[in-house]
Amino acid sequence: MKCDMVVVGAGPAGSMAAKTAADEGLDVVLLEKRQEIGDPVRCAEGVSKAALAKMVEPDPSWIAAEVKGARIYAPDGTSFVMTEDRAGSEVGYVLERKVFDRMLAMKAAEAGAKVMVKTRALGLLEENGVPTGITALHIGEKMEIEAPLIIGADGVESKVGRWAGIDTVLKPQDIEVGAQFLVQDVKIDGEYCEFFLGNEIAPGGYIWAFPKGKNLANLGIGIQGSRSDPGMALRLLQRFLKEHMPQAKILEMMAGGVPVSGPIESTTSDGVMLVGDAARQSDPITGGGIINAMRTGVMAGEVAAELVPQGDLSREALKIYEDRWRDTIGKRIGRNYSVKELFVTLTDSDLNGLVHSLGGEDVANLELKNLLKLLAKQNPRLLWKLRHLIR
Amino acid sequence: MLVINRYKCGYCGACVGVCPATALELVETWLEVDDSCVGCGICTKICPLGALELTEEVEA
Ligand SMILES: Cc1cc2nc3c(=O)[nH]c(=O)nc-3n(C[C@H](O)[C@H](O)[C@H](O)COP(=O)(O)OP(=O)(O)OC[C@H]3O[C@@H](n4cnc5c(N)ncnc54)[C@H](O)[C@@H]3O)c2cc1C
Fold first, then answer.
1. What's the mean pLDDT in A187-214?
2. Over 80: is that where the pLDDT of A343 sits?
3. pLDDT per residue over A364-378, tens digit each?
4. SS3 call for B16
5. Residues forming CATH 3.30.9.10 domain(s) in chain A
6. Which residues of chain A neighbour B49 with C-beta distances below 8 Å?
7. What ipTM describes this predicted complex?
8. Is A359 or A44 the better-scoring residue by pLDDT?
9. Residue A304 pLDDT more than 80?
10. One CATH from 3.40.50.620, 3.30.1330.10, 3.30.70.20, 3.40.50.970 for B2-54
């Protein structure tokens, strides 16, 4: 099989890349190793309304709930609220990703991309050291797909980058590992996405409860890989559930890992671009990656449409993609990486102090920068570490 | 040797992302380990469900 561009992985990043390039007239093949796109879900499913609406028309079939904002709890239980427009790119809608991911793949198909499920990329085809396509296993049968351009949209477990010589290995401190239950409980706050902070609760991470409709929520935990031990995420989540919602019923469970490494050194090589989690473009503070994956998917699709017809897909030529995402998303995740590095050093009493001092603030107007200033004011010892972030 | 408890594994692929030897591969619900595994144990530590374990004995 031959095409202009082969996309490995039909998550939000891959489907958006395939759709964008196919819309521009490229002959695109989109591969997904699973037999069902989007399932099993590895996500808390929160996204910002505004950011999402820029890319797809919101549709009730894949929106499980709409929230007013985020409520954030300090270890001692004190809380504050951030309204939806301030709470960043993970708060607004809670999606039904099984439906959402398939809808995005459908949009790629409608644009003309060939979608192949149960088709796992196995490695690169190469000529004189330059990738010329991929080998894959399609329903158990080996096949080759020749394409001058390969998009690695293969998520947290990405191999495409590694095959192309790009170092995407995540260090334990640069991955948040988690578990999640879909729980049913009368105590669920349907109005806000809730975040619970604390070193005892979730070392280097947080517990979340994202509503998914009446009395339903994704209750999950993410902890920093370097502070994890075998099975810790599940254990801490079970403990939290027992203490906070002893009556809750568990309807579903899942596990997952999300990159929090900040921008990696390279996301391109000759004939290869990485997008989304494969490129480690998720947000280091929240672990949110749906919006960034979609946006970088679009960017890669646009760059593909510009470059494939011209024929130069060398790493130098693909620098346009590298520049585009680094100038936008890259800046943000770079800064947020520094903030994460600081946040994981905060003690529970730092976190309590921070949330207490927000009591008098109009948090609706609180920008991250001001939050950090407040933190520095309270904790002069942190000022030095924070100086780059609050200037 | 890396032992996978498939009754615990949640097939999330986090281990694949941290493996420095590219020894792990997730195929739907089936986690594979090949002989490039160096036994570093990073995957066992980060596994959210505790499905991975390093044992002393080598494969017969
Ligand atoms: C517990 C948890 C909670 C999260 N909560 C949120 C949240 O609330 N909000 C948010 O924005 N983000 C959240 N995220 C992050 C979000 O899920 C990811 O950032 C997002 O899914 C990235 O999209 P992607 O398209 O890059 O990768 P993915 O969605 O992971 O898609 C990659 C696809 O590639 C396929 N694939 C892999 N290898 C191959 C291969 N060799 N051949 C063919 N196909 C392959 C996979 O099967 C998969 O379908 C969370 C993550 C976790 C783990």
1. 94
2. yes
3. 556 667 777 777 777
4. helix
5. 172-259
6. 179, 231, 233-234, 255
7. 0.95
8. A44
9. yes
10. 3.30.70.20
CATH of domain A172-259: 3.30.9.10
pLDDT at A118: 98
Contact between chains at A234 and B25 (C-beta distance less than 8 A)? no
Note the pLDDT of residue A369.
72
Q: Is A361 in the pocket of ligand 1 (CB under 6 A)?
A: no
Ligand 1 atom nearest to A156, measured from its CA: 30
As a whole number, mean pLDDT of residues A152-178 equals 98
Specify whether domain A5-64+94-170+264-338 bears CATH 3.50.50.60: yes
What's the pLDDT at A372?
76
CB A375 within 8 A of CB A364: no
